[in-house]
């Protein structure tokens, strides 16, 4: 995961004036939504973090059609086809765009993860739970990230943190192993005391199991104060070298209504970074 070292922040605008891929209704918004900020920076990375935290699979497992490495390869092909179709359409080469579209449809119909997801969902609806369990076990082998959703929701001491991620095709270069994911975070203070967000900590894991820890002060250049029954939301982004991965972490906060209050950590539950997304990716958290 390369450090971007960029900060694309426009003028400060009210959240309601900024278009967003996540149309969350939030009547008590008292803060702003800023532009995208790279989640990884060279100054905030932990120099002692282990870049190879997970052991590698055997050569036999790597060659298996039901291995996670095989899933990575197919995901890369899928992302590349989508990008090629977009390029062909932009160049008005509609014949080529149609050809790639048909290839994508065939790919989607035969892609094991999507096929197994559909079979498992159908088996559950028909109460064929033995079949559903078999499809689930195959998915666990094929794609360990398949059961982690592209959204998460956690509450710590009355502070709720909701996250949703989305793949940004236009900022990605699959042919060069560059995948760009944006995520939107909503923090709601459901407690009776005002809090301030002081620091952030992210644990980012790519599809190969490589883990990176990121620490930083505040979020998007701010250390927001969040009053009771109000909230703060912002958008940021994370580049990966694989077409899927995961993020989790915590925010360090403190109560500001009493001098000397100790800090505490607010959990950010794990969520997936995936080019395929969830079955109901258009739904709200």
Summarize the structure.
The chain is of the alpha+beta class and 285 residues long.
Descriptive key words:
285 residues; alpha+beta; Immunoglobulin-like; 2 domains; 5-stranded antiparallel sheet; 4-stranded antiparallel sheet; 26% helix; globular; disordered C terminus; Protein ApaG
Structure overview:
It is built from 5 helices and 11 strands, in the order ββαααααβββββββββ. The chain has helices spanning about 60-65, 70-90, 95-110, 110-125, 130-140; strands spanning about 5-10, 35, 150-155, 160-165, 180-190, 195-205, 210-215, 225, 230-240, 245-255, 265-275. Strands 6, 7, 8, 10 and 11 form a 5-stranded antiparallel sheet that branches. Strands 3-4-5-9 form a 4-stranded antiparallel sheet, with no helix packed on it. A two-stranded antiparallel sheet has the order 1-2. Strand 6 (about 195-205) and strand 7 form a beta hairpin. Helix 4 runs antiparallel to helix 5. The model is unreliable at about 1-70 and about 280-285 (pLDDT under 50).
> What's the Cα radius of gyration?
21 Å
CATH level-four homologous superfamily name of the largest domain:
ApaG domain
Query: How far is the first residue's CA from the last residue's CA?
Result: 27 Å
Overall residue-averaged pLDDT value = 75
Number of strands: 11
The percent of residues in helical segments reads: 25-40%
State the domain count: 2
Structural class: alpha+beta
Tally of individual helices: 5
Beta-strand percent range: 25-35%
The backbone outline, from C-alpha atoms, is globular
Order of helices and strands: EEHHHHHEEEEEEEEE
Domain ApaG: 153-280
Pfam families: DUF525, UVR
Organism: Asparagus officinalis (Garden asparagus)
Protein name: Protein ApaG
